[in-house]
Amino acid sequence: MIAADIERFATSAPLAAGYRFELLTRTEVPALIDGLSTWHRDISVGGASCYLQEQYYWSKAFFTDAQEQDIVVLTLKHGNELVGMFSCKLDLATESIYAGLGVTAPEHRGSNLAHAGMLFVEAVGRHLGMGFIFCMATLKHPYAQRACERAGWQLIGITPGYDREWTAPGVVQRVYEAIYAKVLEADDGLLAPQPHNLTPRTQAMFDSIFRFRD
Asked: pTM above 0.85?
């Protein structure tokens, strides 16, 4: 994938009027870290804390002059102001994409960032021939869950304590998160499990989640 592809999909993402996505540039990294520290202090712990480390961007992020990296970071702009970001991780070995972090400055919530970001991920996934896209949605609030469901992604499970978040001043706890996914692979590309390979409990859960594939 080249920068022109990313920019094309980013431009078509349905943000609210006056907002736009742009591919992160190297010079914007310090400002983005400063913004994240203010907009979403919860990410100072847990899996998303890497987005507060400059070295993470230098080693992982896709830039116009470093196009073999696996993390795509879009900045959210309002005019010339940096007001948010959305990221996703490409896994070429499994042909999947993880929709990682989306953050908006509080005064710019309503920009439609989450929904636009998820549609961006889907467009990139289809362009690259990926078979699977997914994300984790905290159960501390309903906003990420609603964005996933609005985008047509399916709830496939809940993790008890996979990640850590601030839950009160000075208190860090493991949290429950919902796993949402969308299969881009055609049905005939999925190997259906045979009942004799599933325990009764696994079969019951499989049936409850994937009834639509009967």
From this structure: yes
